[in-house]
Structures are given as C-alpha cells and as structure tokens.
UniProtKB/TrEMBL annotation:
Region span, Disordered: 210-231
The keyword Zinc-finger appears for this protein: no
Subcellular location field: Endoplasmic reticulum membrane; Preautophagosomal structure membrane
Protein name according to UniProt: Autophagy-related protein 2
PANTHER family: AUTOPHAGY-RELATED 2, ISOFORM A
Highest taxon, organism lineage: Eukaryota
Biased composition (Basic residues): 215-228
Molecular-function GO terms, alphabetical: phosphatidylinositol-3-phosphate binding; protein-membrane adaptor activity
Keyword vocabulary terms for this entry: Autophagy, Endoplasmic reticulum, Lipid transport, Membrane, Transport
Amino acid sequence: MTVNVGTDFASPSLEPQDLLIQLEEEEVIHNSANARPTAKPEIQEDKPPPPPIFFRSFIFTPEVPIRLDYQGKRVDMTHGPFAGLLMGLGQLNCSELRLKRISYRHGLLGIDKLLNFVVSEWLQDIKKNQLPSLLGGVGPMHAVVQLFQGIRDLFWLPIEQYQKDGRIIRGLQRGANSFTTSTAMAALELTNRIVLAIQTTAEMAYDMVSPGPSVRRRSRGYKGKRRNYNQPSDFREGMANAIMLVREGLGETAQTIVRVASEEHEQKGVSGAVGGVLRQIPPTMVKPIILATEATSNVLGGMRSQLAPDARREAVHKWRTQD
C-alpha cells in the first residue's frame, strides 16, 4: 500500500514512519469495525427414507391359465453352450401352467417382500402340482400325451356317462369319438415331426453339395414368385398345395440345370456344359426328397385341419406368417 501525504497537512511533530504506522493501525481498526460476522454453514441432515408400505392382506384371484408354445429358430452360444442349445433346439407345444389363487392375511411389509412371497408360492405350486402338464409339451411329448388321453377317454367316458344318467351307449360313442380324434391327431403330429426331421436333413445335405445360397433362401420359383403356402384348411387344399409345390420345384430344378449348362457352354464349350450338368447331379438327387417332405407336410396339415378345425384357427392366430 502506497500513501502519498502532502506537506500542507503533515504534522511537524510526526515523522514519516510514525505516520505510516498510524495509518496502518487506523486501516486495521476500520476494517475490523466494518467486518460482519460470517454465518456458519448450515449442516443439512439427511432425511430418513420413508417407511415401506404395509400390506395388511393380499388376495390374487382368479387363477390365471397360461399356455406356452415355443419353437427354437437358431442356436446362440452367447449365454453358454447348454443354454444356447436348449433355446435353439427346444420346443414347447401346448405346455400349460396356472398361477394359483393366493390369499394372505397376516401382513407383509414392503413391495419386495410381497413380490418374493407371491413368486415363491407360484414356484412351489408349479414344482409340486404342475410339472406333468408343463413337461407334457416338450418336444413330441404332447403327441404322446394326446395318445394316452384318447385311450383313457375310450374307457373312462362310458363309465362317467353311465354314472351320470345311465346312457352307456352315449358314453361309448363319446369315448370312441375322443379316442379316434386324439389318436389320429397324435399320429399326424408324430408323422409330421418325422417328416420335418427328414426335410431338415435333406436341406443340410443339399447345402453341402450345392454352391450358392442356402436352399431355404431359394424360395422363389422359376417365375420369381415366392412359394408361400399357408396351412391348408382341409385335405383337398393340402393335396392341391402339394401338387403345385412339386410341380414348381421340378420346374425350378430343370431350369437350373439348363441355365448352368448354357452358362458353362458359353465359357468352355461342350466340355463345360457337360461338366456343369454333372455338377448339378448331387443337388438334383437331393431336391426330390425336399419336395416330397414339403408336399407330405402340406397333406398332413390338411388332414389335421379337417379333423380339428379349431386347431387350425389357433395356429393361424398363434404363429406369425412371414410376408
């Protein structure tokens, strides 16, 4: 700090050093007089969390039936080999479970405890009482269950009808109808699964011996239209779809052979054309197997729809068709 003092105002009795000291003391006193006491920072205390909700009673009603249908599309190993194979190859068909009715009146503190209690009750009930109905839809087990259900109805429905009103003939008719329908549906489903397994194996063999894209991507006919047949509504429609599919498949195979032979002939002459035809022999031998399995699957689907029209409607609403 620099202080400039004029000669007219200076006291003769004070030395310059004394004046500087006096000015510094006055400045300190002035600053201390104008200084205001600083407010102490307020300490914000953490508020306690709100108490959890207390549920005096909990009632879940009525029971909720759930039907599971699942078909694995691809194998994904990101979640481990076992989980990937299970998700890619697993199939569920009409697996049923029920979320049972729950009534609890002893009080539960907090939503977490409530959810844990409900899930625990449902899991215990599924493990104790619902495993047969849940595992009955794994793979081909649904068809086997249908077969045994038909055999059971053949003997049980006449007894039940006789105990109800004494009309045993009516019971025999009901039992025979249930046995015929259940047995036929089970046989068709098992046969269709075998046909699909043969088709998958033939498609893999075709992809091994044929160059180019997979046979599943070659779904365009020789006119460029994609062959896409919905599930037939009856046996007649299934037969018509099967005939049309075989006709288009054979035409596409013949056109492929002619196209390859002409392309090779333009590049290499007669030897190239003969070589191109010889290279098409392995996939040409496998292609009729694929066409036969697809046609058989259409015929079986038509028979199944004719025996159980409700099953076709359910399948149409259940599975999403690809455009």
